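Run Thiolase family protein through structure prediction, thanks.
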Amino acid sequence: MRETVIVEAVRTAVGKRNGGLSAMHAADLSGIVLEELRQRTGIDPGIVDDVVWGCVSQVGDQSSNIGRYSVLAAGWPESIPGTTVNRACGSSQQALDFAVQAVMSGQQEVVVAGGVEVMSRVPLGAARSTGIPYGPKALARYDGFSFNQGISAEMIAQKWGFTRAGLDEYSARSHELAANAQDSGAFEAQIVAVTPDGAQPVLTDEGIRRGTTTEKLGGLKPAFAEDGMIHAGNSSQISDGAAALLVMTADRARDLGLTSLARYVAGAVTGADPVLMLTGPIPATEKVLRKAGLGIDEVGVFEVNEAFAPVPMAWLAETGADADRLNPLGGAIALGHPLGASGAVLMTRMIHHMRDNGIRYGLQTMCEGGGTANATVVELLQ
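Sure, done. The structure for Thiolase family protein is below.
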Protein backbone atom coordinates (compact mmCIF):
# COMPACT_ATOMS: atom_id res chain seq x y z
CA MET A 1 0.00 0.00 0.00
CA ARG A 2 1.26 3.44 -0.89
CA GLU A 3 2.25 5.97 1.77
CA THR A 4 -0.53 8.54 1.87
CA VAL A 5 -0.28 12.00 3.35
CA ILE A 6 -2.36 15.04 4.21
CA VAL A 7 -0.65 18.00 2.56
CA GLU A 8 -2.89 20.80 3.80
CA ALA A 9 -5.90 21.22 6.07
CA VAL A 10 -8.06 24.33 6.28
CA ARG A 11 -11.39 25.28 7.78
CA THR A 12 -13.75 28.14 8.23
CA ALA A 13 -14.40 29.46 11.66
CA VAL A 14 -17.36 27.63 13.17
CA GLY A 15 -20.35 29.95 13.19
CA LYS A 16 -23.04 29.82 15.83
CA ARG A 17 -26.67 29.32 14.87
CA ASN A 18 -27.93 32.42 13.04
CA GLY A 19 -24.46 33.87 13.40
CA GLY A 20 -21.87 35.19 10.98
CA LEU A 21 -22.01 32.30 8.49
CA SER A 22 -25.78 31.82 8.48
CA ALA A 23 -26.30 33.78 5.26
CA MET A 24 -23.89 31.53 3.34
CA HIS A 25 -25.12 28.79 1.01
CA ALA A 26 -23.39 25.49 1.81
CA ALA A 27 -21.94 25.17 -1.71
CA ASP A 28 -20.46 28.67 -1.57
CA LEU A 29 -19.01 28.07 1.90
CA SER A 30 -17.48 24.82 0.68
CA GLY A 31 -16.08 26.55 -2.37
CA ILE A 32 -14.18 28.95 -0.13
CA VAL A 33 -12.25 26.20 1.69
CA LEU A 34 -11.58 24.36 -1.57
CA GLU A 35 -10.14 27.46 -3.14
CA GLU A 36 -8.11 28.16 -0.01
CA LEU A 37 -6.50 24.70 -0.39
CA ARG A 38 -5.52 25.61 -3.94
CA GLN A 39 -4.08 28.96 -2.94
CA ARG A 40 -2.10 27.62 0.01
CA THR A 41 -0.54 24.76 -1.93
CA GLY A 42 -0.33 26.37 -5.37
CA ILE A 43 -1.61 23.20 -7.04
CA ASP A 44 -3.40 23.17 -10.36
CA PRO A 45 -6.88 21.99 -9.31
CA GLY A 46 -7.02 20.03 -12.54
CA ILE A 47 -4.83 17.34 -10.92
CA VAL A 48 -7.56 16.55 -8.36
CA ASP A 49 -9.15 13.20 -9.18
CA ASP A 50 -12.16 13.59 -6.91
CA VAL A 51 -13.69 15.64 -4.11
CA VAL A 52 -15.32 13.55 -1.37
CA TRP A 53 -17.58 15.74 0.76
CA GLY A 54 -19.43 15.02 3.99
CA CYS A 55 -22.91 16.42 4.61
CA VAL A 56 -25.66 15.08 6.86
CA SER A 57 -28.89 16.93 6.05
CA GLN A 58 -28.93 16.52 2.28
CA VAL A 59 -32.10 18.51 1.57
CA GLY A 60 -32.77 22.05 0.38
CA ASP A 61 -29.52 24.02 0.15
CA GLN A 62 -27.55 20.83 0.80
CA SER A 63 -29.31 18.55 -1.67
CA SER A 64 -28.37 17.39 -5.18
CA ASN A 65 -24.84 16.19 -4.38
CA ILE A 66 -23.46 19.21 -2.56
CA GLY A 67 -19.93 17.87 -3.13
CA ARG A 68 -20.21 18.42 -6.88
CA TYR A 69 -21.70 21.89 -6.57
CA SER A 70 -19.01 22.85 -4.08
CA VAL A 71 -16.42 22.16 -6.80
CA LEU A 72 -18.33 24.36 -9.22
CA ALA A 73 -18.74 27.11 -6.61
CA ALA A 74 -14.97 27.09 -6.10
CA GLY A 75 -14.52 27.87 -9.79
CA TRP A 76 -12.54 24.67 -10.32
CA PRO A 77 -12.55 22.90 -13.69
CA GLU A 78 -15.78 21.17 -14.66
CA SER A 79 -13.78 17.99 -15.21
CA ILE A 80 -13.35 17.51 -11.45
CA PRO A 81 -16.10 15.29 -10.02
CA GLY A 82 -17.50 15.41 -6.51
CA THR A 83 -19.51 13.07 -4.33
CA THR A 84 -21.32 13.42 -1.02
CA VAL A 85 -21.00 11.10 1.97
CA ASN A 86 -23.35 10.65 4.92
CA ARG A 87 -22.13 8.71 7.93
CA ALA A 88 -24.01 11.01 10.29
CA CYS A 89 -21.68 13.13 12.44
CA GLY A 90 -18.64 11.29 11.09
CA SER A 91 -19.42 12.12 7.46
CA SER A 92 -16.31 14.15 6.68
CA GLN A 93 -14.07 11.84 8.71
CA GLN A 94 -15.42 9.05 6.52
CA ALA A 95 -14.80 11.27 3.49
CA LEU A 96 -11.14 11.41 4.53
CA ASP A 97 -11.05 7.62 4.88
CA PHE A 98 -12.53 7.17 1.40
CA ALA A 99 -10.05 9.66 -0.05
CA VAL A 100 -7.12 7.90 1.59
CA GLN A 101 -8.35 4.48 0.49
CA ALA A 102 -8.55 5.64 -3.12
CA VAL A 103 -5.04 7.08 -3.04
CA MET A 104 -3.47 4.30 -0.98
CA SER A 105 -4.85 1.62 -3.31
CA GLY A 106 -3.55 3.34 -6.44
CA GLN A 107 -6.98 4.03 -7.91
CA GLN A 108 -6.47 7.79 -7.62
CA GLU A 109 -3.53 10.12 -7.06
CA VAL A 110 -4.89 13.33 -5.56
CA VAL A 111 -8.20 13.62 -3.68
CA VAL A 112 -9.76 16.36 -1.58
CA ALA A 113 -11.80 15.34 1.46
CA GLY A 114 -13.94 17.54 3.63
CA GLY A 115 -17.45 18.54 4.46
CA VAL A 116 -20.00 21.21 5.20
CA GLU A 117 -23.12 21.88 7.22
CA VAL A 118 -25.01 25.16 7.48
CA MET A 119 -27.46 24.24 10.20
CA SER A 120 -28.85 27.77 10.37
CA ARG A 121 -30.34 27.23 6.92
CA VAL A 122 -30.93 23.46 6.92
CA PRO A 123 -32.15 22.59 10.42
CA LEU A 124 -31.13 19.48 12.32
CA GLY A 125 -33.54 16.69 11.39
CA ALA A 126 -34.74 18.35 8.19
CA ALA A 127 -34.00 15.20 6.21
CA ARG A 128 -36.33 13.21 8.49
CA SER A 129 -39.34 15.47 7.95
CA THR A 130 -41.15 13.05 5.63
CA GLY A 131 -41.70 9.31 5.48
CA ILE A 132 -40.78 6.90 8.28
CA PRO A 133 -37.25 7.63 9.47
CA TYR A 134 -35.23 4.53 10.35
CA GLY A 135 -37.85 2.15 8.92
CA PRO A 136 -40.52 -0.04 10.57
CA LYS A 137 -38.35 -3.13 10.97
CA ALA A 138 -35.44 -1.28 12.57
CA LEU A 139 -37.83 0.48 14.93
CA ALA A 140 -39.53 -2.80 15.81
CA ARG A 141 -36.19 -4.50 16.43
CA TYR A 142 -35.45 -1.97 19.17
CA ASP A 143 -38.95 -1.84 20.65
CA GLY A 144 -39.84 1.45 19.01
CA PHE A 145 -36.88 3.37 20.47
CA SER A 146 -36.86 6.85 18.97
CA PHE A 147 -33.10 6.81 18.25
CA ASN A 148 -32.92 10.15 20.03
CA GLN A 149 -29.29 10.98 20.76
CA GLY A 150 -30.17 13.09 23.79
CA ILE A 151 -31.91 10.13 25.41
CA SER A 152 -28.90 7.97 24.53
CA ALA A 153 -26.63 10.51 26.22
CA GLU A 154 -28.81 10.31 29.33
CA MET A 155 -28.48 6.51 29.28
CA ILE A 156 -24.68 6.73 28.99
CA ALA A 157 -24.48 9.16 31.91
CA GLN A 158 -26.50 6.78 34.02
CA LYS A 159 -24.59 3.66 32.97
CA TRP A 160 -21.20 5.19 33.80
CA GLY A 161 -22.46 6.82 36.97
CA PHE A 162 -21.78 10.41 35.96
CA THR A 163 -23.34 13.24 37.93
CA ARG A 164 -24.89 16.42 36.61
CA ALA A 165 -22.13 18.40 38.31
CA GLY A 166 -19.46 16.23 36.68
CA LEU A 167 -20.96 16.69 33.22
CA ASP A 168 -21.18 20.43 33.73
CA GLU A 169 -17.62 20.62 35.05
CA TYR A 170 -16.39 18.89 31.90
CA SER A 171 -18.42 21.31 29.76
CA ALA A 172 -17.05 24.39 31.52
CA ARG A 173 -13.57 22.96 30.86
CA SER A 174 -14.36 22.81 27.14
CA HIS A 175 -15.17 26.52 27.04
CA GLU A 176 -12.11 27.44 29.09
CA LEU A 177 -9.74 25.44 26.88
CA ALA A 178 -11.31 26.78 23.69
CA ALA A 179 -11.05 30.36 24.92
CA ASN A 180 -7.40 29.83 25.87
CA ALA A 181 -6.66 28.33 22.45
CA GLN A 182 -8.40 31.18 20.65
CA ASP A 183 -6.58 33.81 22.73
CA SER A 184 -3.21 32.16 22.09
CA GLY A 185 -3.74 32.24 18.32
CA ALA A 186 -3.83 28.45 18.05
CA PHE A 187 -6.61 28.53 15.43
CA GLU A 188 -5.46 31.44 13.29
CA ALA A 189 -3.32 29.58 10.75
CA GLN A 190 -6.00 27.00 9.99
CA ILE A 191 -8.95 29.37 9.50
CA VAL A 192 -9.81 31.02 6.19
CA ALA A 193 -11.76 34.27 6.37
CA VAL A 194 -15.33 34.20 5.13
CA THR A 195 -16.99 37.48 4.22
CA PRO A 196 -20.72 37.15 3.59
CA ASP A 197 -22.20 39.82 1.32
CA GLY A 198 -22.35 43.12 3.14
CA ALA A 199 -21.02 41.70 6.38
CA GLN A 200 -17.80 41.70 8.37
CA PRO A 201 -15.31 38.85 7.81
CA VAL A 202 -15.85 35.83 10.04
CA LEU A 203 -12.44 34.90 11.43
CA THR A 204 -13.06 33.34 14.85
CA ASP A 205 -15.16 30.51 16.23
CA GLU A 206 -18.35 32.05 17.55
CA GLY A 207 -19.64 29.47 20.03
CA ILE A 208 -17.22 30.02 22.91
CA ARG A 209 -18.95 31.34 26.02
CA ARG A 210 -16.28 32.92 28.18
CA GLY A 211 -16.72 32.74 31.90
CA THR A 212 -18.82 29.58 31.76
CA THR A 213 -18.81 27.86 35.14
CA THR A 214 -20.24 24.69 36.60
CA GLU A 215 -22.50 26.85 38.74
CA LYS A 216 -23.93 28.73 35.75
CA LEU A 217 -24.52 25.51 33.82
CA GLY A 218 -26.24 24.05 36.86
CA GLY A 219 -29.13 26.44 36.35
CA LEU A 220 -30.05 25.15 32.87
CA LYS A 221 -33.13 23.02 32.40
CA PRO A 222 -32.72 19.40 31.19
CA ALA A 223 -33.57 19.08 27.51
CA PHE A 224 -34.54 15.43 27.05
CA ALA A 225 -35.90 14.12 30.34
CA GLU A 226 -37.64 16.03 33.13
CA ASP A 227 -35.24 14.71 35.74
CA GLY A 228 -32.34 14.29 33.33
CA MET A 229 -28.77 15.57 33.26
CA ILE A 230 -28.37 16.55 29.59
CA HIS A 231 -29.08 20.16 28.66
CA ALA A 232 -28.00 22.78 26.13
CA GLY A 233 -24.86 23.63 28.09
CA ASN A 234 -23.37 20.12 28.15
CA SER A 235 -24.35 19.30 24.58
CA SER A 236 -22.72 20.27 21.28
CA GLN A 237 -23.89 23.48 19.65
CA ILE A 238 -25.87 23.81 16.43
CA SER A 239 -23.37 25.40 14.07
CA ASP A 240 -22.29 26.32 10.55
CA GLY A 241 -18.94 25.56 8.94
CA ALA A 242 -16.80 23.79 6.36
CA ALA A 243 -13.34 22.23 6.19
CA ALA A 244 -11.13 20.57 3.58
CA LEU A 245 -8.00 18.38 3.46
CA LEU A 246 -5.73 17.67 0.50
CA VAL A 247 -4.71 14.00 0.25
CA MET A 248 -2.09 12.44 -2.04
CA THR A 249 0.79 9.98 -2.05
CA ALA A 250 4.01 11.03 -0.35
CA ASP A 251 5.80 10.61 -3.68
CA ARG A 252 3.36 12.91 -5.47
CA ALA A 253 3.74 15.53 -2.75
CA ARG A 254 7.51 15.47 -3.18
CA ASP A 255 7.20 15.70 -6.96
CA LEU A 256 5.02 18.80 -6.54
CA GLY A 257 7.45 20.35 -4.06
CA LEU A 258 4.91 20.22 -1.25
CA THR A 259 5.68 19.67 2.41
CA SER A 260 3.21 17.25 3.96
CA LEU A 261 1.61 17.89 7.33
CA ALA A 262 0.81 14.34 8.39
CA ARG A 263 0.93 10.71 7.33
CA TYR A 264 -2.29 8.73 7.48
CA VAL A 265 -1.44 5.75 9.71
CA ALA A 266 -4.72 3.86 10.14
CA GLY A 267 -8.47 4.23 10.07
CA ALA A 268 -11.30 2.16 11.47
CA VAL A 269 -15.07 2.19 11.59
CA THR A 270 -17.26 0.16 13.91
CA GLY A 271 -20.88 -0.44 14.79
CA ALA A 272 -22.14 -0.52 18.37
CA ASP A 273 -25.40 -0.58 20.30
CA PRO A 274 -27.74 1.81 18.41
CA VAL A 275 -29.74 2.51 21.57
CA LEU A 276 -26.78 3.68 23.63
CA MET A 277 -25.69 4.90 20.18
CA LEU A 278 -22.81 7.18 21.19
CA THR A 279 -20.40 4.61 22.67
CA GLY A 280 -18.94 3.57 19.31
CA PRO A 281 -15.73 5.59 19.77
CA ILE A 282 -14.65 3.16 22.49
CA PRO A 283 -14.40 0.03 20.27
CA ALA A 284 -13.35 2.19 17.29
CA THR A 285 -10.37 3.45 19.29
CA GLU A 286 -9.37 -0.09 20.26
CA LYS A 287 -9.64 -1.19 16.64
CA VAL A 288 -7.64 1.66 15.13
CA LEU A 289 -4.86 1.33 17.71
CA ARG A 290 -4.51 -2.37 16.84
CA LYS A 291 -4.29 -1.50 13.16
CA ALA A 292 -1.75 1.24 13.85
CA GLY A 293 0.33 -0.98 16.13
CA LEU A 294 0.27 1.65 18.87
CA GLY A 295 -0.50 1.71 22.56
CA ILE A 296 -2.76 4.44 23.84
CA ASP A 297 0.10 5.98 25.81
CA GLU A 298 2.00 6.57 22.55
CA VAL A 299 -0.68 8.95 21.28
CA GLY A 300 -0.04 12.58 22.19
CA VAL A 301 -3.46 14.09 21.47
CA PHE A 302 -7.01 12.79 21.21
CA GLU A 303 -9.92 14.52 19.52
CA VAL A 304 -13.11 12.84 20.74
CA ASN A 305 -16.14 14.70 19.44
CA GLU A 306 -18.12 16.33 22.23
CA ALA A 307 -21.58 15.53 20.95
CA PHE A 308 -22.61 15.41 24.61
CA ALA A 309 -20.38 15.54 27.67
CA PRO A 310 -20.91 11.85 28.60
CA VAL A 311 -19.40 10.74 25.28
CA PRO A 312 -15.75 11.77 25.86
CA MET A 313 -16.13 11.09 29.58
CA ALA A 314 -17.18 7.47 28.99
CA TRP A 315 -14.46 7.12 26.34
CA LEU A 316 -11.87 8.37 28.83
CA ALA A 317 -13.10 6.03 31.57
CA GLU A 318 -12.93 2.98 29.28
CA THR A 319 -9.67 3.67 27.45
CA GLY A 320 -7.61 4.95 30.37
CA ALA A 321 -6.14 7.69 28.17
CA ASP A 322 -4.35 10.68 29.67
CA ALA A 323 -7.10 13.22 30.41
CA ASP A 324 -4.75 16.12 29.70
CA ARG A 325 -4.36 14.91 26.11
CA LEU A 326 -8.12 14.81 25.50
CA ASN A 327 -9.57 17.71 23.49
CA PRO A 328 -6.86 20.15 24.65
CA LEU A 329 -8.33 22.96 22.53
CA GLY A 330 -11.87 22.47 23.75
CA GLY A 331 -14.49 20.64 21.73
CA ALA A 332 -17.94 20.85 20.19
CA ILE A 333 -19.57 21.92 23.46
CA ALA A 334 -17.68 25.20 23.13
CA LEU A 335 -16.65 25.35 19.48
CA GLY A 336 -19.76 23.89 17.85
CA HIS A 337 -20.68 20.86 15.79
CA PRO A 338 -21.52 21.58 12.13
CA LEU A 339 -22.42 17.91 11.55
CA GLY A 340 -21.09 17.02 8.09
CA ALA A 341 -18.07 19.28 8.50
CA SER A 342 -17.09 18.23 12.01
CA GLY A 343 -14.84 15.30 11.12
CA ALA A 344 -12.72 17.48 8.85
CA VAL A 345 -12.81 20.37 11.32
CA LEU A 346 -11.52 18.14 14.12
CA MET A 347 -8.80 16.68 11.93
CA THR A 348 -7.72 20.16 10.85
CA ARG A 349 -7.57 21.35 14.45
CA MET A 350 -5.69 18.24 15.55
CA ILE A 351 -3.07 18.30 12.81
CA HIS A 352 -2.28 21.97 13.36
CA HIS A 353 -2.06 21.36 17.12
CA MET A 354 0.34 18.48 16.50
CA ARG A 355 2.52 20.66 14.30
CA ASP A 356 2.52 23.56 16.74
CA ASN A 357 3.49 21.33 19.67
CA GLY A 358 5.69 18.65 18.08
CA ILE A 359 3.26 15.82 18.82
CA ARG A 360 4.02 12.68 16.81
CA TYR A 361 0.70 10.78 16.89
CA GLY A 362 -2.87 11.99 17.06
CA LEU A 363 -6.12 10.03 17.24
CA GLN A 364 -9.53 11.34 16.28
CA THR A 365 -12.85 9.59 16.83
CA MET A 366 -16.50 10.51 16.31
CA CYS A 367 -19.72 9.07 17.69
CA GLU A 368 -22.42 8.82 15.05
CA GLY A 369 -26.17 8.39 14.76
CA GLY A 370 -27.22 4.76 14.54
CA GLY A 371 -24.37 3.56 16.73
CA THR A 372 -21.42 3.74 14.33
CA ALA A 373 -18.07 5.46 14.92
CA ASN A 374 -14.94 6.35 12.98
CA ALA A 375 -11.42 6.52 14.38
CA THR A 376 -8.28 7.74 12.63
CA VAL A 377 -4.60 7.88 13.57
CA VAL A 378 -2.18 10.27 11.88
CA GLU A 379 1.53 10.90 12.32
CA LEU A 380 3.18 14.32 12.20
CA LEU A 381 5.63 14.82 9.35
CA GLN A 382 6.78 18.40 9.92
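Residues 164-184 form the longest helix (21 residues).
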